[in-house]
Amino acid sequence: xxxxxxxxxxxxxxxxxxxxxxxxxxxxxxxxxxxxxxxxxxxxxxxxxxxxxxxxxxxxxxxxxxxxxxxxxxxxxxxxxxxxxxxxxxxxxxxxxxxxxxxxxxxxxxxxxxxxxxxxxxxxxxxxxxxxxxxxxxxxxxxxxxxxxxxxxxxxxxxxxxxxxxxxxx
Length: 170
Known about the structure:
By secondary structure, the protein is mainly alpha-helical.
């Protein structure tokens, strides 16, 4: 069996060779990159990738505040998982969780000063890691092509997926 050949019983047997190659390449990078980013963030700043995702997402809101539902949509995660995540983060004073002033059924999540400080501490090492293992592996033309390809895929996900487009994702 070749590098990207799949057994006939595999669900990917319905893809052509180039599609299998592209999908496997994406999945290998996606899974390994999330693992390595989490490891780098834990070792460098003592923060998990899940926490970092929440902290970064909250910086995209003008006042550092989002509802749990908006936050879940922004980071592409299940609302219940995000709800548990922010409660753990609130116990560490990285975020504050309060009843929403706009909707009594909702909870607002607000970035705290300690959360901002942790984000500021973690970001330089994280960005350097992303640059070294991802961006530096691409030429300028490949970077533009990859950005365009992922923008197209993202638009398809919005069109055919179950989460709405976040307000801050053009």
